[in-house]
Amino acid sequence: MGIRLVDLFYSIQGEGRYAGKPAFFIRFPECNLFCGLEKPLKPGNYDQEYINNLKSVNAGWVCDTMAQWLSNGFEIDINDIVDYISRLSSGSYNIVFTGGEPLINRSNILKIIDAVNSKNLKPYIYEIETNGTMEPIEDDSISYNISLKLSGSGMKRSKRINSNIIRKFLLLKNTWWKFVISNRNDAMEAIEIMDEYGIKRDSVYFMPAAFSRDELVKNSVEVIEMCKEFGVNYSPRLQIFIYDKYVGV
After folding, report:
1. For 2-243, CATH number?
2. pTM over 0.90
3. Rounded mean pLDDT of 50-59?
4. How far apart are alpha carbons 33 and 148 in whole angstroms?
5. Where are the domains of the chain?
6. For 222-243, what is the mean pLDDT?
7. Is 133 marked as a binding-site residue?
């Protein structure tokens, strides 16, 4: 059973509730949002710096994995994915489905979960990193990392906020919410969304907008102060702090 991926690697989770946890990342192609850009790009092999230079005047940041999920990627058999996990796993780890928007590939996510479970590999939990605009898979073994997009993404609200889908996520057992924060206006907009939908602050993480280690260090202090002010959690970006601009590590 061959499926198309753009990356497969073993690292640690860099963000949110499970930051620091060993994790297998399975990155799918495609996304329904093009955060930071004025116009969508066709799939192809791009340099991330080139994409960054296309940033819309209405956006505060550009998706830092766009070059990856736009790429042609590779085809891999599900059994090879399971074999990769079984050879490297030791002790407690998560399996993280990411993108792009991984829920575009929900049928393949379910196939991988079934294959992993059939081998009795028992990850601590499955994570799906989603923008919160697509129908969730209802399964208590899945933790949802929901990164709702703010106006700083440059995307229209009608594209980035789906009220019906948000309410469905709120009914699930394992959900946490993440907002990328560039400035105080972002924080205030996030608070408005939280209040509008009744999202509890102890399940929310503010994360600094950053593409490099220098930007992360520069922006973190202000975001931490806003976390203290509004009573939400701070999310690091360990992958940027440790590896800087490198991805897939």
Report:
1. 3.20.20.70
2. yes
3. 90
4. 11
5. 2-243
6. 94
7. no
